[in-house]
Every structure is written in C-alpha cells, then in structure tokens.
Amino acid sequence: MRGICVRKLGERWASRWHGTYSRALWVGVLFGLVLILGACDARQSPQETASRDEAPPAPSVADGTMPAPMSVPPPPPAEPPGKPMPAPDFAAAKAAEPGVVASPSVGGDATGNSLQTQRGNGAEQVAAQQALRVQNDAVELYGKQRSGANKSAAEALSGGLEAGRLQAAGERLPARADAEKRQNYDKSDVDGPAEDQLDTVVVTGSRIRRVTEETALPVSVLDVAARSPEVSATMDDQLASGTAATSAPAAASAPAEPAPQPPAAPSPPAPAAGFASDARTVTPDLKFQEASGYWANTYVPGDPTIRLLESRLRGAQTPIIDAEGRVLNLDSASRQYVQPFDLPENAALVAYLHADQRGIAGPTRLLVQVGLQGTLRASGLRPAMNVGVVLDLTGPISADVSAGMRALLAALNAAKQTGDRISLTVAGVPGGVIVGADDFKHGTIAVVTRQIFGSEPAPGAPVLDLAQALSAATLAVSQSDDPSAQLGASLVLLVTGNALADPGLGVLEEQAHRSAVGGIPLSVVGVGGAVDLAAIDRLTLAGQGNRRLLANPSEAPSVVDRELHSASRVIARAVRLRIRLAPGVRLVEVISSNKLDEGHATRVREAEVSVDRRLAKNLGIEADRGEDEEGIQMVIPAYYAGDAHVVLLDVVADRPGAIADVTVRYKDLVFLRNGVAQANLSMGSLPDAAGPLERNVLKNLLAMRLSAAILRAGEYLEQGAVDAADALLADNLQQLEHARRSTQGWENDVEIKNDIAMINEYRSALRANADAIERERVADSLRYAGYLKVQARRR
Questions:
Q1: Is 381 helix (H, G, I), strand (E, B) or coil?
Q2: Residues forming beta bridges with residue 388, ordered by sequence position
Q3: How many helices (H) and strands (E) does the chain have?
Q4: Is the dihedral of CA 352, 358, 362, 368 positive or negative?
Q5: Which of 335, 454, 612, 673 has minimal Cβ neighbours within 10 Å of its Cβ?
Q6: Which of 312, 328, 274 is nearest to 758 (CA)?
C-alpha cells in the first residue's frame, strides 16, 4: 500500500511539473522516491515478503477487473505499394480509450521485464519491481508528451510541409530524413523494402521533394490526415499504438489478430497513352544516332516571344465568348507544369536525372530527362553598362515601330546611371555612329530622333547597312570596354522592326558570334508584329545575348530595365552539359534539339573558351575549358536565377543496369568558383509501377507535344483553315483524355484536367466565332497558350 501511495504521489508531481520543468528534473525526483521505497521495503520482515510473494495472482485483463499493463492494438492496415506510411522513430505511447494505459518499458519490451520481476522473494527483487513500475509510469507520461508532439507533426503535414522536414512548434522531429537528408525519394524505404529497390537515382546537391500529383494514388492514412485535422489526431493515436505493438509481443489475453497478408506484387507500369506510346516501342526500322558531339542548346534566356501575342490580346476591348455567351478562359489556363526540383543549397546549379520507368526486363524504349535547377540567389546590383545601340531603319518603318523605337531611346536615357556609357548607331538612313557614348543625353536624343525619322535628315552623314552598323557599334563598345568589368557589362543592342532573312542573316550571325567571342554579347529587341522570331533566336544564340519583344511603347521602360539588369541575374556562365549513355543504351533523338555541324560546334567551343578566360582574368575563377569531352555535349552561355530547364532524350536500353550519367560544369558566379553537378541513373529488373518522378518525365513530353500542336492549330486558324485547326485540337484532346484515363496517377491530375478544359474551350471558340477578326484573336490566343506551356512569362 505504501508503494502505491508513493507511486501515485510521484505521478501527481510529475504531471504537475512536466510542462514547466525539464524532464531530467522530475525523472530525478522519481528515482529518488524509488530509493526511499527500496529502503522501506528492505526493512520488512521475511514473513511479509514471503506472504506478498505467495499472494494470489492479480486479476487478469480477461475478466475485466484491471487494465492491461500494455495495450496491444491491432496493427494498422497495410499501406498500398505506391504510397506507404512512414513509420515513426520513437515510441509515442498514448491511451487509445479510457481505461487502457499504454506504458512501454525502458530498456526492453514490457513482457520481458515483467517476467524478470515476477519471481524472487528478496528485498532487492521487490525494490526492482517497484522501480520498474515507477519507470513505466514515467515513460507513460513522456509518451503522452511525445504523442502530443507527434499530433502536431501530423497537423503540420496536413498544412503542406515537405516530406522529411516535419516541424512542430519550431522543434525538429527525429524523422528519417534527419539521418539521410540527401537520400533520393525514390530510394527511400517509403516505397518498399530496401531489397526490392534495385533501381537507383543518385543526385548531388539537393534532395528531391515529393510531387504534388499524389492525390491520384490510393488513399492512405497520410492522405486522410492531410484533409482532416480531426482525423489527423486519430492518425496520431494509430501511429503511437502501432509503434507500441511492434515493440512488444502481444499479451496472451489479447484477442488474436489475423496474420498480415504480404503486399501485392507491383503491377507493371501502364502505357503512357497515345502521346507517349511511341516512346516505349522498339521497332526493327528504328534509327539510332551517335550519342556524341555538340547539340543545339534550347535554353534561350530573355523575354519570350509571348510578349507580342500578350500585347495583342491585352488590347482587345471585349472577351472571347462561346455560342452561349459564356466568357472563355482560353490562354489564361495555359501554364508550365511544375518541376519537382529542389533549389540548390550551396551552389548555383543542381542536376537531376530521371526516366519514365523504374525497371526494365529487356530491350525497352525510355525517356531520359536531365533537369537543371538554378538557385534564387542573385546580387541584384547591376554594374556600370557599356551599351552600343543599333537602330535598324533599313526597311519601311511604320508609325507603331517608330513610336516603339522612340520610347526605347527615351527609356535608355531615363535608366542611365553614373558610369554608364551608351552610344547610338543607325542603319539605313544617314547618320552612322550618330551619338557617342559621352553625348547620350535628353537634348541630343530629341534632336537625333527628329533627324533619323525623317523630319530633319542629317546632311552629308554616311548611310550604313545593317552589317556595317553592327560592326561600327561593336568597335565603339570595344574601345571603351573595361577588361576587368563583369561579363555582360558590355553589349550591343540591336533594335529592329524588320523580318531578317538569309543571306544577310547569315552574315549577321557570324558577326554576332565574333562579337561574343570577344566578350561583347549581342541582344536583340524586336519592335512590332513584323519581326521574324526564328531569326531573332538565331542571332541571340550566336551572340550569347537576350531576346526582347516590344509590342507597345509603354513597355519600353520594363524592357530596358530587364536588359540592363540581366547581368546581375546571371548565376552561372559557360554551363556545359555532358551526357554519357551506358554501354547497351542507344540514342534515338534529343527531343527539340539537333546535332550541330562542325562549323557551329567550332563557334560553341570558341565562345566557351572566351568566357572561361575572361572570368579567370576578371573574377579569378580558374580557367578549365578548351578540351572536348565524350558523350552528348551542350553549352549554355548563361543561366539565370530561379530557372528550371529540362532536356529529354529518347533512348533504347537493352538490359537493366546503368543507363546514363550527366556532369554539369559551370562558372559559379554566386560563389565565384568552378562548379560541378553530377547525377546518374540505373534501373533494376522489377516491373515497378511509375511513381511521381516518372510521371513528371512523361508530363514534360506531353507539354512539349501539346505546345507544338496548339501552335500549329493557331497557324492553321491564322491561314483560315478552321477545320484543320479543329481536327488537330480534337486529336490532341483525345490523346489527353486517353493519357489521363490509362496512366496511373493521372486520373485526378489537376494540370492535365486544366489542359483538357482549355482545349474544349478553344473548340467552342472556333465554332462560335465566324468573324475573321475574332478568329484572328483566337489564333493569337492559341499561339500564346502554346508558348506558355513550355516557357515562363517572366524576364
């Protein structure tokens, strides 16, 4: 009786103090009581001890006379193979219902400790028994405290925190990710036993977060908890009970539980449906390419071409409606798919490598995706700029183009800061280098604009063609170039409203390349709707600059601001991707790219070496370029903060094992060093179902093909081929629906559903708008939506 009173007193003190004082304090008090209790029992007579040992057994749980010392709830239901529930790493014992106490023992399971103290008739055994009871009571209180923390963690998970980063009240819980921060999601034990994970994806630099398309998978406890705070608390009880059940064998009086069934074998991945079925078929007539040499870079920073279409659509006075008068969303529903790439933590770039399948048994056609993610860190401070502006007045100049060029010159003058040097050269009208770098001022600009746009022509001034004007501007910039300045601080800015074409375009392309090799990139601003976007892309690629579109004079200040600050947003230069395919893996194509001929490859090498040497001289980053590497090579001149970019490869793998590896070497302008990011991909032979990362690869292919189809439909409609545009949209709608129904994980995919609804609206718009002007607006909207599927609208 005295032992029970002391134990109750200790429990009351612990309950009062555990919320205010540290655990160490009240645990120490409990053990002090244990020592006093042991001393009291030691003074008892042997007769008292023997009578207590010979007392009848205590009432059992079966007859309902006392609670069980250790509740053993049934094990939680088995999770589906696609999304199992991560097990907690601590025993959060919590009472499941009144009268049932969960009290796991310290230093072993409760049954073993009970057997050790049920026998013995000495004072030491009795003292040990009483100490064990006090310890169990302390663990019970601590288990209640930790289960509360576990409940907070479940609520935090329902709030949307990343897997492996659960936090409750600012305290980092001992989740599995603490021990293995860099472990790839696909290799974690949440996808099944470790021995079943034969496919590995090794990624350096950051951990891959979960993809949000988990809503289509079978519902699990975590899914329910994320939707309901009340069920989240219930999940906490199940977690605690499940942990206690695994830490101790079931009591004899507990009802027998059925033996858990082994998990079902994973089903083979479903076909990717119409849009990607050809990417999984190996045919006898399939042609392969050599997986080596230089390939065209598809990452072109700067303003996307969508600004021109956006401006046209923005100027409309009335919305586009269907036959029933409902306003249609159309292009406002088009956006890029979210990429599951974490931001790098201590580098400018991080690389990822995935495929559209997890395992293969024989010759299989695969999609291999190389992903790049840039850090958000950037200085935000632009250097003093040395800019040579070239106005292309060689063709007819409309009033809109003239107004845009005037606004651009005024914006440059307004954005000019101390130390900036801006010169102006004109082509097609008398003038030549009409404004020197020291004379670019408001008064001078006002006089010059009147001269070059016809009201006051400059007498006796030379007339230059566009190639001569570019050469003159490049010379003017190079003469005042500071070799120690940041790369990108000196540039030539071509402003044109004409549709540039060969053979003159080839000459300009060669000039742009030579200028870039000399450290002076070429950027192009297209003014009005007559510009050739493909020609602008060719010039910016050769000149390693940016492309801009000015559709409205009011946009001139923002265009100038982005161009002058572009150098401050660059986080990496001379980004070289080297992709090597393993033996037995053959290349079909690099999607949306092409292999460069020797002439273009030479240009790429020269430009890369030029950037390498200049950064070594100006920033002290060691020069390490000049040698070709084995495998597929791509060179990105500059990479911007926060950008995500993917490269898709269509390959055929003969057998399981290593598939590919990628190495990304770059000039890290954030940490001022040579940066390297690496990733490799291998596959096992198990036919595992596709997970979120594999579905992301397929969705990127879907986005590329959907973008191309919508662009073509806009072109058909612009040419008056309404039936051809509608047939193309109907075909892609059918493929989207088939892909959504047949691909596991896409049944409830929000992004794909949005695309389906968007195409349905476009078909409604085609049927309802017979007027030529309205159809032109729909055509612009189609092209705008096509660009938005694969390009960001920022910068």
A1: coil
A2: 423, 492
A3: 21, 18
A4: negative
A5: 454
A6: 328
